[in-house]
Each structure stands twice: as C-alpha cells, then as structure tokens.
Write a structure and sequence with these properties.
Shape: rod-shaped
Number of strands: 2
Distance between the termini: 71 Å
Structural class: alpha+beta
Strand content: 5-15%
Length: about 110
C-alpha cells in the first residue's frame, strides 16, 4: 500500500488587521474621517476578493520509501510551499495596498470635484 502525505494550509491575516493598519496610516497622514472610512471599506472589499481561506493537496509515495524518508520529503515540501506562500503573500499585500491607495486617490479627486 502506498504512503499518502497530506498538506493543509490556511490564511492567517484578517481583514480587521489590515483595516486597522490602513486607518492608522491614513490618520497619521492627516486624512479626514470620511476618507479613512472610505479607505477602510475599500480595503475590506478588496481583501475579500483575494482572500484564500484554506487549500490542501496530497501526494502518494511508493511503498519502498521508509517512514523517515516520507517525513523528510514532507518537511521539504512544506518548507518550499511556505517560502512560495510568503513570497506570494508579500506581492498580494503590496498590490492590495496599491489598489486601495488608487481607490483613495480617485475618491479624493471626485470629492474635490463636488
């Protein structure tokens, strides 16, 4: 019987954490409450579209692989996935910030027109 290794990962950042950080930055820059509320709302909306709750996969190893070898393979795969996940997470967060900032600029431009 073949050995099966399962991997399960889940998202750990929360929209509330991102919203708090954004509010703090906007307040420190002196933006008014309407702009801060708009930015926080947009940050939550965008976060919901990029959020990944949980994903998993499994691999099947040949019977000839020992328990120790299977454990080592699993650790190597988990470490590699963690590195990829961290890199992707950083890119996604940066894009999220850029998009929210663009939405705020657009909001401020429209607000200035009225």
């Amino acid at each position: 019987m073949a050995k099966i290794i399962e991997f399960t990962f889940k998202q750990i950042d929360s929209a509330d954490k991102i919203e708090k950080k954004l509010k703090a930055v906007l307040q420190s820059k002196g933006y008014d409450e309407d702009t801060i509320a708009f930015g926080a709302k947009k940050a939550k909306e965008i976060y919901k579209t990029i959020k990944t709750n949980k994903y998993s996969f499994s691999i099947q190893l040949p019977d000839s692989i020992s328990h120790l070898e299977a454990h080592n393979i699993k650790e190597q795969i988990e470490n590699g996935i963690k590195q990829l996940k961290d890199q992707a997470r950083e890119i996604i967060i940066n894009l999220h910030v850029e998009l929210v900032w663009a939405e705020i600029k657009l909001y401020l431009a429209k607000k200035g027109e009225s």
